[in-house]
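The data layer described in this paper is built around a simple, fixed record for each protein. We quote a single record here, exactly as it is kept in our systems:
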Amino acid sequence: MTQITLVTGGARSGKSHYAEGLLADKPQVTYIATAPTYPEDPEWVSRIELHQNRRPDHWTTIETSHLTEALADVNTDEHVLVDCLTLWLTATIDRLEGWSLPQHSPEYFAFLRTLDEHIEQLCNAAQSSRSDIIFVTNEVGSGIIPAVSSGRLFQDLLGKVNVAIGAISDSVVLVVAGRPLEIYSTRPKSHT
């Protein structure tokens, strides 16, 4: 039976490393990297290279922010690691041109409805997959409220994405300081 796991945590908390470790011994893994490339930003390029260099050579990598379509394409009996929902949401808001819409305008509410449809499609794609899926995401709602409206929008919407994926997940793991804490699981506990 397909298993969905959500791994969340703060920036540089070790969540990606933990998620990769869950699949280290699996013979067939598809890694869906949702990060856009910014070749003019050396720090960003370095971050992407760090992730790339950690992946085993036998893993298949798909670089795309079109996550629903990518999940449908790899709908096989294998393991899928999606890193990460945070960057998928960023790219989706970019595509929908939602960053600077005036709040409470008809365009803003249309954007929110369309984004809800994208989240629902993502959840449906994950639930209908035959692959075990691990989603990595950031937990951004535990700090201060951002000073700018785009930051508040992003914080709110990522919370919505995380709640939706968490609701369909068989396991939710919070990584803090490199240490995983399973906060929800439908899997039976081992009493050894």
In short: The chain has six helices and seven strands. The helical segments are 15-22, 42-54, 67-73, 85-96, 106-128, 149-168. The radius of gyration is 17 Å.
